């Protein structure tokens, strides 16, 4: 059905947010990056468009909630292993992320996450199998 996903996120300070995600280990596609937006590569055909709030307002008349006090959703990314989950959270913490909760191990799934400088929640999970039935 769909071939790519682009998650659009408004950010207060594009340079700061870009530096944060570069410290975590993500790359930006220069073809989709300028002083108004940054096209962050999350994986094969997976992208986050980080949009300065002024630029993001050209796409919607709605107000942007403060991500530090309100949640309208969060981004969840799959990882190859529990170790990758922990490594990315550690990099995010070192780059200044807020870690809102402890890691959770549900047996079939391991997850942990962080909040970026704008308060957007990024959840990282490693699926080990299927959830128990019943």
Give the DSSP E fraction (strand runs of 2 or more residues). 25-35%
Mean pLDDT: 95
The CATH architecture category equals Roll
User: Given the structure, what is the number of helices?
Assistant: 3
Strand/helix succession? EHEEEHEHEEE
CATH superfamily: 2,3-Dihydroxybiphenyl 1,2-Dioxygenase, domain 1
**What oligomeric state best describes the polypeptide chains here?**
single chain
Shape: globular
Distance between the termini: 30 Å
The top-level CATH class is Alpha Beta
The CATH topology is: 2,3-Dihydroxybiphenyl 1,2-Dioxygenase, domain 1
The main β sheet shows up as: 4 strands, mixed
Q: Provide the gyration radius in Å.
A: 15 Å
The share of residues in helices is 10-25%
Structural class, judged by helices and strands?
Answer: alpha/beta
Provide structural commentary:
This protein is 21% helix and 33% strand. The longest helix has 13 residues, at 82-94. The chain has three helices and eight strands; from the N terminus they run E-H-E-E-E-H-E-H-E-E-E. A four-stranded mixed β-sheet has the order 1-4-3-2. A four-stranded mixed β-sheet has the order 5-8-7-6, covered by helices on one side. The protein has a single domain (5-127), classed as 2,3-Dihydroxybiphenyl 1,2-Dioxygenase, domain 1 (Roll). It has helices spanning 14-24, 53-56, 82-94, and strands at 5-11, 27-29, 37-43, 46-52, 75-78, 104-105, 109-115, 121-127. The protein is α/β, with parallel strands linked by helices and 134 residues long. The model has no long low-confidence stretch (mean pLDDT 95). Residues 3-127 form the VOC domain. This is VOC family protein. It comes from Pelomonas candidula.
């Amino acid at each position: 059905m769909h071939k790519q996903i682009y998650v659009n996120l408004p950010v207060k300070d594009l340079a700061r947010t870009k530096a944060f995600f570069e410290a975590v280990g993500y790359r930006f596609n220069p073809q989709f990056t300028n002083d108004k937006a940054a096209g962050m590569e999350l994986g094969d055909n997976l992208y986050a468009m980080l949009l300065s709030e002024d630029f993001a307002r050209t796409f919607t008349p709605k107000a942007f909630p403060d991500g530090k006090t309100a949640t309208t959703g969060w981004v969840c990314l799959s990882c190859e292993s529990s170790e990758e989950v922990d490594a990315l959270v550690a990099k995010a913490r070192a780059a200044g992320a807020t870690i809102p909760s402890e890691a959770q191990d549900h047996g079939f799934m391991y997850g942990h996450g962080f909040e970026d400088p704008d308060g957007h929640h990024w959840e990282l999970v490693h699926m080990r199998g299927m959830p128990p039935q019943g």
